Amino acid sequence: MTKIISIINQKGGVGKTTISQHLIVGLRKKNFRVLAIDFDTQCDLSFAFNIKNKFSIYDIINNPKQNINEAIENDFLAGSPLLSSINFKAKQNKEYLLKSALANIIYDYDYIIIDTPPALSDLTINALTASDEIIIASQADILSLKGIGQLSQTIQAVKEYTNTNLTVRGILLTRYNNRTVLAKSVANMLEETAIQLNTKLFNTKIRECNAIKEAQAERSNIFDYKKYSTAGLDLQNFIDEYLED
């Protein structure tokens, strides 16, 4: 069965797009069929993959009559800054627009990965309503911990009203520095938070690594750029842990 996964955190700068990119690439390297969806107005995932599709996810959401197959190129649905201009209040069943759009192509893929915007908006609600699972990307800092508390309220609302089968697969620590006392302390608190969300903190932690920034500057990914770097090994371990669970 196809599994739809949203990578989420309403706080920016936590490595959400980096996790989305490398989960997509890593699963493809294991010969899974993966559709990537850039559902963020900043379009960072589209930039990372150097995507220049004729149509974007905006065209699909804003015009339900638009053929989604015409918008998918190289197994990618591109993002658009115009997503922020969609008037969701004027649309019927506004929470289900993305879910409805994916209905005709869902069985063409093993995984559909959605990179979500850093906000608890109508776009985020659409992504959560369409998803089977959530992976929460988080840094080991107090503001991220606070943000997950706010996010949990949104998740519970979605589970109650629009997607009763939604599950939180886990919390993934990014940009982790295991040499600081604060990072270790917040990691312990996140383990407790994970229990409250009926999920877990992934054993794998993505450590801070300059090779990630270098790969992004080259419009590449860490597996092709420096797969044996700290981040390359951590991201591969995360994908293996995800698949083994």
Secondary-structure topology with pairs:
Blueprint: E1 3-8, H1 16-29, E2 34-38, H2 44-48, H3 57-62, H4 68-71, E3 76-77, H5 97-102, E4 111-115, H6 122-130, E5 133-138, H7 142-161, E6 167-176, H8 181-196, E7 201-207, H9 210-217, H10 222-226, H11 230-244
Parallel strand pairs: 1-4, 1-5, 2-3, 2-4, 5-6, 6-7
Give a written overview of the molecule:
The protein contains eleven helices and seven strands. The chain has helices spanning 16-29, 44-48, 57-62, 68-71, 97-102, 122-130, 142-161, 181-196, 210-217, 222-226, 230-244; strands at 3-8, 34-38, 76-77, 111-115, 133-138, 167-176, 201-207. A seven-stranded parallel β-sheet has the order 3-2-4-1-5-6-7, with helices on both faces. Helix 7 links the parallel strand 5 and strand 6.
